[in-house]
Amino acid sequence: MADHHLETRLVHDGILRSPFGETSEALFLTQGFVYDTAENAEARFRNEEPGFSYTRYSNPTIAMFEDRMASFEGAEAARATATGMAAVTAAMVSQVKAGDHVVAARALFGSCRWVVEDFLPSFGVGCTLVDGTKLDEWRAAVRPETKAFLLETPSNPSLEIIDIAAVAEIAHAAGATLTVDNVFATPLFQKPIALGADCVVYSATKHIDGQGRCLGGIILSSTEFIETKVQPFLRMTGPSISPFNAWIMLKSLETLPLRVERQTRTAGHLADALADHPKLAYLTYPGRKDHPQADIIARQMTGGSTLIALVVKGGKAEAFRFMNALELIRISNNLGDAKSLVTHPATTTHQRFAPELRAEMGIPDGLVRLSVGLEHQADLLADLEQALGAV
Fold this sequence. Notes:
Elements: H1 6-12, H2 38-45, H3 60-73, E1 77-81, H4 84-93, E2 101-105, H5 110-119, E3 126-130, H6 135-141, E4 146-152, H7 164-173, E5 177-181, H8 186-189, E6 199-203, E7 217-221, H9 223-237, H10 243-253, H11 256-274, E8 280-284, H12 294-300, E9 307-312, H13 315-325, E10 330-331, E11 341-343, H14 355-360, E12 367-371, H15 377-389
Parallel strand pairs: 2-3, 2-4, 4-5, 5-6, 10-11
Antiparallel strand pairs: 1-7, 6-7, 8-9, 9-12, 11-12
Helix pairs in contact: 1-3, 3-10, 4-5, 11-15, 13-15
């Protein structure tokens, strides 16, 4: 399907039809597979013949999701995982060993930062955190034992943008790899591999499912990276996605461009309407010209985001007052959903960090993350304005 447009590939790529010739992709709820002979089983386990052997390793439904995501991303190969954090953890752990060193951007989702700042060091892997927007800090953090870089852009929740191509160049000059968490941009608006990244990870729970139904994650890279680093780790440790969840994700990909493009248009409209609101200290949205990294956005993104960062004047108390006054938009720590959602990162996703660390990450107490859904933009704007009126 390489010659077809993206929307067409997201409907048709990777389909494996059974002898029944079903229209919709089949859901294979099976743990294992049978072989014609013992010799077939031996060959399958030696990877000397194609096919499936155990759903923890792979499965026809999971394989269809992986192949379609690889086509979407522009990657050679992909492996799906049970959750987004399983994808991040597997991608990083599979690259390093005791004595190695990782450099990561400070502005990371709380659990991602825990992986590099607490989990990896507990196994003897060093970590240095940097201001991801400052290329000199990436260069200065490199050591002889540095093996991997990690960043997310736009970042969660401050929507900070990092120059992927520039950081990739620094990583490669040091003999390291670059892994990018691309959740907020989605493959629709940003292609990290084309910009030089070696590995891309997603929480498929977010925009890929997009309807609040199930968990999943995915790792995308070259065939060599997936087969030599990621696949052995996933096969032996088992953070595999269920076939049912993979099927949900697979079907959701058919509508992802429609959903995300609509959500992004609405987010842009809301950002413009609220940017100068007197109850807001400031507003950040990647689609606006006043974004601090607007020049980088113009180079590496083809669209904004479904996320807006609103900083309510008056800190936590007034942010809570605003959130509690919302009538249509619901409070939830999820994002990328068909329903518009808000969360207060300082007391939820990033609550474990001390105030000074949250300040370093661009998370003041008044920050509210808004994930824009599929509701009519006029209804959303009316709800936001009446809630800000309560501040």
